[in-house]
Write a structure and sequence with these properties.
Blueprint lengths: L1 H5 L27 H6 L16 H4 L7 E7 L2 E6 L2 E5 L33 E4 L9 H9 L4 E4 L3 H6 L7 E4 L4 E3 L6 E5 L19 E5 L4 E4 L8 H9 L4 E5 L13 H11 L4 E5 L13 H13 L11 E2 L26 H9 L9
Parallel strand pairs: 3-4, 4-5, 5-6, 10-11, 11-12
Antiparallel strand pairs: 1-2, 1-13, 2-3, 7-8, 8-9, 9-10
Helix pairs in contact: 7-8
């Protein structure tokens, strides 16, 4: 608590963004209605499992360049950097929800079981929302005694769920942690979002992006964020990146201050100085009203026009930023399901109210 109260981001009642988010988030567009939130576009979920690759065989061989990333769904990525393995925002749970029977359910299982993962050297947790901090996943990782680096205050959740205190490092923005016995350093950097797992703990913990650096390679992970000029500051203070992972999905025009979406993700990528762009935070949960594949389609079209180096692998497909080939739009092979016509029921209404993206943050 002493470190929290000493943070420049703490105002005595909660953490605050550098740039205030207007209450209600109406500055970027009208808030969606209840029916739109529940049903959204006719294509909000794929009609069947997404194409995926078993990554276990790839992981038996070291990356030829020393840097490799495997997207496992939503914001979960296994990063291999100079002999170490880091895991971002690991979520293996069936729902991004405080409840087991209601709330956003994942489209399909992760392409590799949590128990089958190779040894993990570090887990990064950007903030405490349910689609980034997952109770059953943390419990399993705690049994494996994996170390965690997370945003200031989030360690209380981890410790309560079985992670030993000495295996937890909490960072305020611009603070760094070097992995023992290695040259890999993790630095927490600004993001623009909010936190909380209930109506009673809003902004009690910090939210962050992360920069990962070794002697040879560098990676940026956005966590959840809106677009701010802080991306330029990150580039100036921490240098350029070989791999840039930015959130592109689960957005709405009314949420533009706290989520990027494809348009702002490309702007953020430019402010960061480029690097291979691996989009995350899409293709796993229905957390917004747009078609499930809309972020991918919009990003691909705009990236081609701007010449942005884009990597859009299938689930479980390991890629090396130095050897990325032309994007194969695999999502176009999925069928479009029929639009639901049933009336709103009580469970659907409860599900919508529980979705964390639909909460209104404070400044």
């Amino acid at each position: 608590m002493e470190r929290i109260q000493a943070s420049p981001r703490w105002d005595g009642q909660g953490f605050r963004n550098l740039h205030p988010i207007e209450r209600g988030l109406r500055v970027k567009g009208q808030m969606p209605g209840m029916r739109e939130l529940i049903f959204g576009d006719e294509n909000t979920a794929p009609n069947g499992p997404l194409p995926s690759v078993d990554p276990l065989q790839s992981w038996t061989r070291p990356p030829s360049s020393g840097l490799r990333a495997t997207w496992l769904g939503h914001s979960t990525v296994l990063i291999e950097i100079d002999g170490l393995r880091l895991l971002t925002d690991p979520v293996w749970g069936a729902r991004a929800s405080p409840f087991s029977l209601v709330g956003p359910k994942r489209f399909q299982e992760v392409p590799v079981s949590l128990q089958a993962l190779p040894p993990i050297d570090l887990v990064l947790v950007s903030h405490d929302h349910y689609d980034h901090l997952d109770y059953p996943t943390v419990r399993e990782l705690a049994r494996r005694d994996v170390p965690f680096v997370t945003s200031l205050g989030v360690g209380a959740h981890l410790e309560a769920w079985g992670v030993r205190p000495e295996r937890i490092v909490e960072l305020d923005w611009w603070e760094s942690h070097q992995l023992p016995g290695s040259e890999v350093t993790v630095t927490a950097a600004p993001s623009q979002h909010f936190s909380g797992r209930s109506l009673h703990d809003r902004n009690a913990t910090l939210w962050s992006s992360f920069a990962i650096r070794s002697a040879r390679h560098s990676v940026f992970f956005s966590g959840d964020t809106g677009l701010t000029d802080e991306y330029r500051v990150i580039r100036e203070r921490l240098g350029a990146f070989d791999l840039v992972m930015l959130e592109v999905g689960a957005y709405h025009p009314a949420w533009g201050d706290m989520h990027l979406g494809p348009d702002n993700a490309l702007k953020a990528h430019a402010l960061l100085g480029g690097g291979t762009f691996l989009p995350v935070h899409w293709g796993t949960f229905k957390l917004a009203t747009h078609a499930w594949d809309q972020p991918a389609e919009a990003l691909l079209q705009q990236a081609e026009r701007s010449g942005t180096p884009l990597a859009m692998p299938r689930l479980g497909q390991a890629i090396e930023p130095q050897h990325v080939e032309r994007v194969d739009p695999w999502w176009r092979k999925m069928k479009v399901p029929a639009k639901p016509t049933k009336p709103v029921d009580a469970q659907a209404t409860q599900t919508a109210s529980l979705t964390k993206n639909l909460s209104w943050p404070q400044d």
